[in-house]
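Milestone M4 deliverable, item 7.
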Amino acid sequence: MKLNNIKWFTGSLMTVALAAGISACSDDHFDITSDTAGKQTIWKTIQSDERLSNFADILQSVYYSKNEQKATPETYADLLNNTQTFTVWAPVNDSFDYNYYKGLIESGIRDSIYKVERELIRNNMTRYSRSAIGNGSVKVNLLNSKSAWLDFDENTFQGIAMTESNIRVSNGALHILAKPTKYLPNLYEYMGTREDLSGINEFIKKFQKTEFNELASTQGPTIDGKITWVDSVTSTSNDYSNYYIGAFLEREDSNYVMILPTNTAWNAILEKTQQYFKMKNSYKQDFHTTTETGGDATYSKEKVFTDEELDSIMNFYSKDVICRNLAFNANWQYKRSPISTLDDINKLDEKGDSLYSTAGRKFKKKGTLNAGNPLSVIEIGSYADMFGNADPITLSNGSVYVVDQYPYPYSIYAPTLDQLQLDYADTKTINTSRSGYSTHTYIDPVVTIDGEDIQTDSTFKYSIYKAVNKSSSSNPKIDFKLTNVLSCKYDIYIVFNYNTDLEKPNKFTVSITYDTDKKREKNQRLKNPNEDAVDTKGEKLYNTNNFVNRSVHFNDNGDVDFTDTICVAKDFEFPISYYGLGNDAYPVIEIESKPKSTEKEYCRELWINAIILKAKEW
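Output delivered:
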């Protein structure tokens, strides 16, 4: 699936990424300044040294690549035999598996040959001349974009002894190594090295792109009105990992920690998430509008998907929720706490510190104090279990924890929907003189709880949607959108504010309009699921159409509370998902004030604070 098929994703992100220089570039920049201190080129010197015959054979058997897909007609022997400046750390015979690399070359398979380039040749060379004379150590950027340390005091390169250094050559520098440097893949590469990670690797790599990077390329002369290039640098990037996961997994200068589910874990969790994103080809939505003469009119719009689009969207959503929060910035956790080893993770467990994924989701230990909206937090019993309870695999730009079980609770992919900012549906509001958002403030109010007047010493502010009845005998009825609803079961709650202006509770009914796979179910009346629910006269409300909110009361913390959270449905199933559809399609919840004319103990005006849908695990 192309990311630009997702509604909110635009091509402008790619332009921003390129301008910001955040893509990983293949190092094709040629330095055309030579060092003429020696009489022979690097290649001639390697070719003439019997200790390096195996490495020399590899160099003359592999063609230099512009990128992973495209090789040039020039071998590495040719490259090291001209005036471009390089430094090579050449490994001696028998220090590496020559037959293994020769077999990869002779296979003729492009990926196998490029593996030799990336892991052996480019991992032991860099552009420009690097002598081994000096003090301390210096970080060297290798030709494959990896980094290695050149230690002058120890005469080592990436911890490996240089048996001979500073061999005089005409086009750079040559050193002989006791063995080749160890190749460490980065996070992005590592996913593709293990067959048991093919599920997550194939999903993420679908969004990879390689593009010509004019800013990083070296421009040559203009011939026949056309620009030529001394070298062409290509940039490989991945819009999904960069902008959805929020991690540049291919960048060598990054430091991430990532949880990678094996295919066993991937297939098991995918079977679950697919149930939450069941969509249909056509959604028909009613909208309310006003005519030119000021009258009311209702019209319908239809959102239609082809079978191919629908399959692509559902596939993306069900996999995106698995992947999005698997990466963490190893440098920027709470108080810069490291998370690179199991010991680091256990220390976080002991302290109860929180973690943030690169996508911005907060994880915290169960039972620890949480600041902010608790519904945006994922509670974890054990961080050690979350990271697989084992030491990670060290890579060139971080580390990975490979797990056989998906480590997060279902709330990561089926979150509670807290409609704190109520979205008024575009359908007709009935018997309402005025309605809209407001903030109701109670300043040191005296309230009555269980017949006793309570003097409060605080200011209480609530954002509410207020619907005022047209007359003393009319009952307002209002509709709200329920956006991003998944195809699962929910417990549904409505949070009412107590009307302290009239000092009366509400009696009301609730209906829901939603889609099945075949049609639009309209105004399905909900029954009261609370077996203990009673009205103001003590009469049972269980399994009736009516709901009643409480007056001011003490909440579970012993504080005065002006709101009452009422469960209006248990295990209510939405068979079709609306995720990502925004204002194109959505279920509608209708709340209607419903006291009888004789029930003077209730007010007709509605003060609604929030609607909450708590997803249930399938």
